[in-house]
Write a structure and sequence with these properties.
rod-shaped; 4 domains; alpha+beta; 7 helices; three-stranded antiparallel sheet; Tetrahydropterin Synthase, Chain A; 324 residues; four-stranded antiparallel sheet
Length: 324
């Protein structure tokens, strides 16, 4: 009885061992590569999840691969931009096994762990080589071209990794930092750029101001010329009309004296209208009107003393007063 039980347990163990060596399980996030005597073919890739059968391990060898996204991060790398500035950058790569390239992946990398060890070097080469072709302004600022730089890195990796059965899914630049020396250079360049823009705006403003002043001066000259011309026309018309009245007034002595007095006043107004300094003897007409002590009069209108005095009503010249 005991021998029967032992034999049964032994047979059960053999069956379990046989089942364990002739079956394998593929998870939903895995793909299996089954190599028979070390050879693979089109039917060697198993993507359906579940329980599958195989020959014992000395005949069939099954390699399972995780099909989920894998992450590779680069360390901080110092690179030189196309405009000569030093920056420190860090990036990441999301990748997966290329569909249809599972056998090539196993051949080149053996496993996910092997690819994880090999990819950082290739990623670093594409990462730094591509970013060094961009200027600092392309990587930093509101007008940066980070998305274009990331796409360029992804294209470079795709060309390199396509033969390794790896598909780059996404490439990102997570950090862009400036060393202290570069920060000073960037600030100086930004200051110089602002100075150039400020000077350009100042020049533009001065040009606009000169244009406005020129237009205003031209318009003022036109208005002044028009006003002067109009004033001359009015003055000429007034003189024509005044000549008629003077002709009528010349027939009367008192009217003639009043006309002479008005002419004197007009001459004084024109001569002294612009803060003019005049040094003349006060006995000359019409400046004798400025001498309050001159008592030589004919009627109510002061008369000049000395030569050049108008004649009296009788026709004889008035005696000249003693000059000063």
């Amino acid at each position: 009885m005991n021998k029967a039980i032992a034999l049964g347990v032994g047979l059960l163990l053999v069956v379990l061992l046989l089942l364990f060596s002739t079956t394998y399980t593929v998870k939903f996030n895995e793909v299996a590569i089954k190599a028979t005597f070390g050879r693979t073919g089109e039917q060697s890739v198993i993507r359906e999840p579940g329980l599958h059968f195989q020959w014992p391990v000395f005949i069939d060898k099954v390699t399972k691969l995780d099909t989920r996204l894998q992450l590779v991060e680069s360390p901080h790398e110092e690179i030189s931009t196309s405009d000569g500035l030093q920056i420190v950058v860090r990036g990441y790569l999301l990748w997966k096994i290329r569909e249809g390239g599972e056998q090539q992946f196993v051949k080149e990398n053996s496993s996910i762990e092997g690819a994880t060890q090999n990819l950082p070097g290739q990623f670093r080469t594409a990462f730094t080589g591509t970013l060094s072709q961009y200027s600092f302004d392309d990587l930093v600022g509101p007008a940066s071209r980070l998305r274009a730089a990331e796409d360029a890195i992804k294209r470079a990796l795709t060309e390199t990794l396509v033969d390794l059965g790896i598909e780059p899914v996404a490439v990102g630049i997570s950090q862009v930092m400036l060393p202290a020396k570069t920060s000073r250079a960037v600030l100086q360049r930004m200051q110089a750029t602002r100075n150039v823009r400020a000077e350009a705006e100042r020049y533009k403003g001065n040009a606009e101001a000169e244009r406005i002043q020129s237009e205003a001066k031209t318009m003022a000259d036109k208005i002044r010329a028009f006003a002067t011309q109009r004033a001359e026309e009015i003055r000429a018309l007034g003189e024509v009309q005044a000549a008629k009245y003077l002709e009528q007034m010349s027939q009367d002595q008192e009217s003639e004296d009043l006309a002479v007095f008005l002419v004197w006043l007009n001459a004084l107004e024109r001569a002294l209208g612009d803060n003019t300094t005049v040094i003349l003897p006060t006995y000359l007409e019409p400046f004798h009107l400025l001498n309050p002590n001159d008592s030589t009069t004919r009627g109510a209108i002061p008369q000049p003393r000395g030569t050049g005095a108008p004649r009296a009503a009788g026709g004889a010249a008035e005696p000249a007063a003693g000059g000063q």
